[in-house]
């Protein structure tokens, strides 16, 4: 077993001649809050897409707890334990809040399809357990009251929370958050910071997050990697990285 | 009154077929134009079992097996390799599968029309008139099937997963849902419904031929579009509406020659007034 939950070795992808991301080396320790930052178009979301199998890397490899997942399919990677949220919310907006979470729990169903169609006893007990687990998860995010609401009718901040809950429902070892604070006001962002920290502590979760909101990054992340034009600009402790002249230059220009 | 009951029977049949179209469209995002020919295959399965003096139930089971197998087979061999191809390529392939099934039926059974008697023509007095036993079975089973299907989609997690895939295939995959399995399951369910439809259709028409699936297929497709393609309640309501309109129109001496025109005319009117169909949701593309 590797000491890192996530490790990438020279991970990269080219689209034709364009090297969108190259030579990304991440080492994320258990229960870390690791930030991936960089200016627009630096390739942050592309890294997430590589780590979830949406894109296949054209260079390098990546490992989850030492297991090589390079080139695996999206579904396999999800089953192995990487879950994510999206920059622009992609909930199943016509399903109820609890159904969104239950869909994520598909990974953990112990009964076969035949059992669930025929509604054998094991189906009921497992279904009951799953429902209870789903409600517990919703409760953690303060969403249990609204579990019957259709997801698209939730206020924006709660939709973001539900997306995190749905990702956690798949039982991940590593949670990828793509700009969780996008479109939030300062108060919502502060609340979200608490939620993310809580998720880390309560679920002993390892979290890799992309973020633009510097107050969130500096308040939350232990370590950062800065991407610029698809390559690693700098890596290290949050405070050091944010005060580095190079990083400030990349963000603000000369 | 008996016109209404007959209309509801045809409506139920169209609804069952329309459900196959609409579920496959909603989840796999393709129009399976071979769906009508799956019904034809089911009808031949029933024909074979009944000619061998088999029981009706046995005939129905045979039809379910044949239809489901053909549905799964066509999905696996013809449509799955085209999962990321353009919708037009998939559409044309579906038309190809349709002709393939019709030609196979001609090879095995030649193109003669053959009579089939599913149930003896018995009637029972009801509502001041007589209603055929076949119609009663059709109505009862169609109702049960639609209720069960609705519960399955709404109440089970597999049903939820189907809705999730239809909404956002990419996100569903990232949540660990095996999309290929869900699509195959959708084809299996749609085809099994088609097997029931073929039995009920034979009860009304009593004739099998290789092109038997074309007309109910296209009418059920019309019903699915009227109801809003991709919408399950839409397919049910669209199917029943179309069946009732068809029966009333063909039982009136003045309108009867124009029945088909009225049905497809209704489609055009609906598309003009409400292009997404009765139950269709407007899709807003978010940027």
Detailed description of the structure:
The complex is a heterodimer of chains A (254) and B (287). With 254 residues, chain A is of the alpha/beta class. Chain A has 2 domains: 1-81 and 172-254, Rossmann fold, CATH 3.40.50; 93-166, no CATH class. Chain A is built from 10 helices and 11 strands. In chain A, the strands form 2 sheets. A 6-stranded mixed sheet of chain A has the order 7-8-9-4-10-11, sandwiched between helices. In chain A, strands 1, 2, 3, 5 and 6 form a 5-stranded antiparallel sheet that branches. Chain A is globular and about 60 Å long. With 287 residues, chain B is mainly alpha-helical. Chain B has one domain (2-120, 128-273): Orthogonal Bundle (ABC transporter involved in vitamin B12 uptake, BtuC), CATH 1.10.3470. Chain B has helices at residues 2-28, 35-51, 56-79, 87-109, 133-155, 157-167, 169-174, 179-205, 214-227, 232-251, 259-273; strands at residues 114-115, 123-126, 129-132, 207-208. The longest helix of chain B has 27 residues, at 2-28. Chain B is globular. The relative contact order of chain B is 0.21. Chain A binds chain B through residues 52, 54, 74-75, 78-79, 83-84, 86, 88, 90-95, 99, 102-107, 109, 113, 116-117, 127, 130, 166-167, 169-170, and chain B through 152, 156-158, 160-161, 163-164, 167-168, 170-179, 185, 281, 286.
- Major sheet of chain B, described briefly? 2 strands, antiparallel
Q: How do the helices and strands follow one another from N- to C-terminus of chain B? A: HHHHEEEHHHHEHHH
Task: Give me the CATH fold name of the largest domain in chain A.
Answer: Rossmann fold
The count of helical stretches of chain A stands at 10
Our count of helices of chain B gives 11
**Class derived from helix and strand content of chain B:** mainly alpha
Strand-residue proportion of chain B: under 5%
| CATH domain topology of chain B | ABC transporter involved in vitamin B12 uptake, BtuC
Task: Measure the end-to-end span of chain A.
Answer: 44 Å
CATH level-4 homologous superfamily of the largest domain in chain A: P-loop containing nucleotide triphosphate hydrolases
What is the string of SSEs of chain A from the N terminus onward?
EEEEHEEHEHHHHEHEHEEHH
Q: Into which percent range does the helicity of residues of chain B fall?
A: over 70%
Side-by-side strand order of the widest sheet of chain B: 1-4
- Lateral strand order in the biggest sheet of chain A: 7-8-9-4-10-11
Radius of gyration of chain A: 19 Å
Q: Which pair of chains forms the biggest interface, and how many residues does each contribute?
A: A-B, 33 and 23 residues
Cα separation of the termini of chain B:
52 Å
Number of domains of chain A: 2
Quaternary state of the chains: heterodimer
């Amino acid at each position: 077993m590797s000491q890192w939950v996530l490790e990438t070795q020279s991970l990269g992808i080219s689209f034709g001649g364009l090297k969108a991301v190259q030579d990304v080396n991440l080492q994320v320790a258990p229960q870390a809050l690791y930030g991936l930052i960089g200016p627009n178009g630096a390739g942050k979301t592309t890294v997430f897409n590589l780590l979830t199998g949406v894109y296949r890397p054209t260079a390098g490899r990546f490992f989850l707890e030492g297991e090589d997942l390079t080139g695996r399919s999206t579904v396999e990677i999800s089953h192995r334990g990487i879950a994510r949220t999206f920059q622009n919310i992609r909930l199943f907006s016509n399903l109820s809040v609890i159904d969104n979470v239950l869909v994520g729990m598909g990974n953990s169903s112990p009964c076969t399809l035949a059992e669930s169609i025929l509604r054998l006893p094991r189906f009921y007990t497992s279904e009951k357990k799953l429902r209870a687990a789903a409600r517990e998860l919703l409760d953690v995010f303060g969403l249990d009251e609204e579990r019957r609401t259709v997801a698209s009718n939730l206020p924006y901040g709660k939709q973001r929370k539900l997306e995190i809950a749905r990702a956690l429902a798949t039982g991940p070892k590593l949670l990828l958050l793509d700009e969780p604070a996008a479109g939030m006001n300062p108060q919502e962002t502060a609340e979200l910071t608490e939620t993310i920290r809580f998720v880390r502590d309560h679920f002993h979760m390892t979290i890799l997050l992309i973020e633009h909101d510097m107050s969130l990054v500096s308040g939350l992340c232990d370590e950062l990697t800065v991407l610029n034009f698809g390559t690693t600009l700098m890596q290290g402790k949050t405070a050091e990285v944010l005060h580095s002249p190079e990083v400030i230059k990349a963000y603000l220009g000369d | 009154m008996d016109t209404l009951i007959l209309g509801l029977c045809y409506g139920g049949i169209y609804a069952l077929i329309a459900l196959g179209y609409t579920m496959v469209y909603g989840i796999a995002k393709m129009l399976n134009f071979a769906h009508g020919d799956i019904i034809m295959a089911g009808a031949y399965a029933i024909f074979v079992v009944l000619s061998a003096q088999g029981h009706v139930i046995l005939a129905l089971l045979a039809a379910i097996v044949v239809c489901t197998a053909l549905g799964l087979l066509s999905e696996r061999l013809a449509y799955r390799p085209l999962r990321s191809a353009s919708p037009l390529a998939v559409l044309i392939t579906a038309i190809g599968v349709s002709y393939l099934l019709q030609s196979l039926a001609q090879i095995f059974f030649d193109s003669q029309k053959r009579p089939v008697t599913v149930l003896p023509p018995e009637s029972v007095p009801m509502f001041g008139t007589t209603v055929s036993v076949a119609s009663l079975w059709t109505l009862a089973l169609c109702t049960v099937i639609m209720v069960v299907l609705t519960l399955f989609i709404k109440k089970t997690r597999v049903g939820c997963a189907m809705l999730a895939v239809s909404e956002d295939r990419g996100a569903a995959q990232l949540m660990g849902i095996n999309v290929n399995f869900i699509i195959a399951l959708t084809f299996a369910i749609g085809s099994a419904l088609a097997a029931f439809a073929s039995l009920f259709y034979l009860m009304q028409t009593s004739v099998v031929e290789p092109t038997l699936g074309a007309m109910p297929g296209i009418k059920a497709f019309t019903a699915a579009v009227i109801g809003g393609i991709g919408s399950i309640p839409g397919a049910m309501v669209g199917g029943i509406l179309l069946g009732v309109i068809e029966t009333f129109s063909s039982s009136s001496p003045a309108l009867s020659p124009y029945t088909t025109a009225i049905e497809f005319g209704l489609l055009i009117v609906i598309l003009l007034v409400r292009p997404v169909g009765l139950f269709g949701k407007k899709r807003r593309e978010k940027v």
